[in-house]
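Materials and Methods. Structural model of TrkH family potassium uptake protein. The 480-residue sequence of TrkH family potassium uptake protein from Alitiscatomonas aceti was retrieved and submitted for structure prediction as follows.
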Amino acid sequence: MNYSMIFFIIGWVFIIEAALMAPSALVALLYSERSIWAFAAAIGLCLLLGVPLVRKQPANKVFYAKEGCVTVALSWIVMSLMGALPFVFSGVIPSIVDAMFETVSGFTTTGASILKDVEVLPRCMLFWRSFTHWIGGMGVLVFLLCLLPMSGGGYSMNLMKAESPGPSVSKLVPKVRSTAKLLYGLYVALSLLELTLLLLGSMPLLDALCTTFGTAGTGGFGIKNSSIGEYSAYIQSIVTIFMILFGINFNVYFLLYMRKPKEALRCEEAGWYLAIIAASTLIITVFIRNSFPDLATAFRHAAFQVGSIITTTGFSTVDFNVWPAVPRAILVLLMFIGACAGSTGGGIKVSRIVLLFRTMTREIGQIIHPHMVKKLKFEGRVVGQEVLRSVNAFMVAYVLIFAVSTLFVCLDGFDLVTSFTSVAATLNNIGPGLELVGPASNFSCFSDLSKIVLIFDMLAGRLEIFPLLVLFFRDTWKKF
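The predicted structure was written out as tokens:
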């Protein structure tokens, strides 16, 4: 275990987080809010801890997958702890468990909240909550790779693989640092485009910034108690479109950027993703038609909620908890499916669902025709056993974590739908669930134990489970 490199990178995480808190402090200054001192104290503490760790670059830069997983997991834990300090220092969220829940929910782009009334928060705190979505959407270590010319031992790719969502991560261009820059460039460009369109819809600047952060990171923290429900149909439509866009694999945008539209259109995962959205929207529209004055309004709300749930954003325009059983069941299924690999969305991912389905049909085919040899293909390529093994292992870990988490949350004595969907909403990084954790409610009703379990679920879901689990194995910390 290369501890010196791990601490060196974590030191840079401290420093970068201090820099990322500065815009929130600026918002506090612009609005003359007293909470500015809370950000100043948190920034000072981050620098105090980070600067000593990066003063000397380690001589040994050998960095394997194990170190990559440990570094990513510890970085996200440290980042969440420090990110919770402004809430605690200002007294906005005095409980450290609640502050951690809110911050982890922000960085993991979950959007689940313990706050009962977000509109009473200072503007700087609203900005920081939403900005954590934007930071966590692409990943702070991917951002770190953009800034620092770190090379040696191939560890840059191990960091990117451990932090990026999806079954596999590949370099878009030969150098990892160039890949990280390109990803962030596309991320910023899409964010600026959405921000511009929201401003054209007469949305106030702060509202537009926070909404863009939540959409880009597929997070869902709103600055209104009604989430997006108070805004115009135009703004709701823009948010719907960009939620869906940010749920697409960024490789598609890279191919479009490289002027290869035919290859981009052949992306099989994106095709399935859009088909699921279209089918779900049409079915839900049929079932909720009588709840709205006209078909167009019903379609708009159905499309918004489908886009919000499958991309794991968590915004809402209406309380879908009161919809009929079939639309609610579809939304719960979409919670598990999630967005595309290589996007900012959470969930199991469309690619994994497709691979699992094809694996199942191949097994059934081999039962019927024992001597049949059929290679499993995806995106026009044969899928190797290593990828299938990884997908199967992910699903086993996912089911075990889901089951154990649900048992712990059930200790609070709430109904099964509340307990089940609270775990589904956090492990899949969605935000709202059903019943007591529906879009018109929050997670404040849970005990500290349940909140800690749900914090673990949010981190596990964002980091694709294994980087976090690696921390709990004794062999991880042995020196070989």
